[in-house]
Each structure stands twice: as C-alpha cells, then as structure tokens.
Amino acid sequence: MRSATTVERAAAMAWPCPVDTIELQRISEIESDNWWYRERRAIVSGELLRFSVPGTAADIGAGAGTDARLLAAHGWRPTAIDLNPGAVALARAHGVEAYEGDARYLPLPGGAYDLVLAMDVLAHIDDHERAAAEIARVLRPGGTALVCVPCDMGLWSAHDVALGRVRRYTRDALAELLEGAGLLLDRLWARGVLPRPVLRRLRHRTTRREDLAPLPAPANEALRLAMAVERRLPLRSWPGTWLFARARRPG
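Structure (tokenized):
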C-alpha cells in the first residue's frame, strides 16, 4: 500500500469534518437540477435496467439520500450510509433507511446486498483499498458494485481540495483498486468527455466549490445538452472528467 502525500493526508483528515444542516440541505437542492447530478442519476437508472428483479442495495457515502431515493423509485430496498450525522438525519427525513458509518468499516452484514453504489466517495478516502474491500464484503456472491470517481490527476485543482478529495483516478488505477478487492470488473467507461475542456479551464481559475454552488441557468442547460449529445457519440473510451465502473463479486 502506498504512503499518502502531505496533500492527501491533510485532505483525508479534513474529510470527516461535519457539514452543517443548512449546507447539506443546499447541496440536496442543487442535486435535483445540477447538470452533472442529473446525468449521474440517469447513468444509475440505466444500469438498474440490467437487473430483472430489484433487490437490496447499499448506497455508500449517500449524503442526503438522493441516490437512495432513486433506488427506491426503481423498486429497490436501499440502505444509505454516510459518515456525516447531519446527512443521515436529512436522508431519514426523506424516508430513507440511513445509518452513520465509515466506508472503511461499514456497519452492514457481509454478503447481504445485491447492489452497492459508491458515487464519488472513494476519492475522498486515503485508505481506499479498505473501503473497496468493504464494498466487496457486503455484496452477496454475484452482486454488483457501481462506482463513480473523478478521473485524471491532470485535472487536479483547488476545486478538488475544496471538495475534500485526495486523488483523481486513471482507468488502470480504478481497475486495480476494484480487482485488488476481489471484484471482477465487467465494464469501465468515462463520462464528461465533451465538458472536460471547459471544466478544466474553470476549475484551474477558481477555488469555488462548483459542485456545491448553483450554476447560472444558461450554463447549466448548456452542460446538460452537452451530456445529452455525448450519450449518442462513441466517446466512452476517450479522456473524460469522471470514470464509472461496474464490477461484481464472484459467485
């Protein structure tokens, strides 16, 4: 296991700090319309169509439970886990079964879940090998993990530091992480190919937490349309802004 850099250690120490309830509520409201969160939910919804029958699901790093509610809308029985007690309270207020817990030590039984979501959480954890091993542990044999991470350290900026990330991933690094946890990689693909040049310029020019601040409506709509176009183009092997992976526990 590699040793963390000074930047990574500092970010890893900052990650568990609580966010106040007002800020969490603001993030939850932004998620409903923000171009990227909408696209991420569309990707998750598309992946859920692969299952003939909904089952049990764990949403790791669930925040206010937006993705857990999406799972429930598709007929799944979700359990949300987040390190932040305020996020857990908000998720429960939205009717989600949610518990406080560290992704490295999940308060969940082994072999109990048909699906585990880990949407942009592994990039916040210094010991991401342990978190990946926990994902594998709680999956039933044959169960599926769906993971999303930011990609390419060439895109690293103050934006990542502000969000408490400790790394961005290459395709090989994400594949190695999941396979090292004992999972079989089914598919790995990039998204955010078309917006990448614009986002790179913006994030190297500001320390603002763009993911957590409302965009002007025209910019938000332009990015949404760019992602809609991207879905129709063969760009998933091109350099993007995020990586998605689907993996399964051997069964």
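The two ends are 27 Å apart (CA to CA). Strands lie at 56-60, 77-82, 98-100, 113-119, 139-150, 184-191, 242-248.
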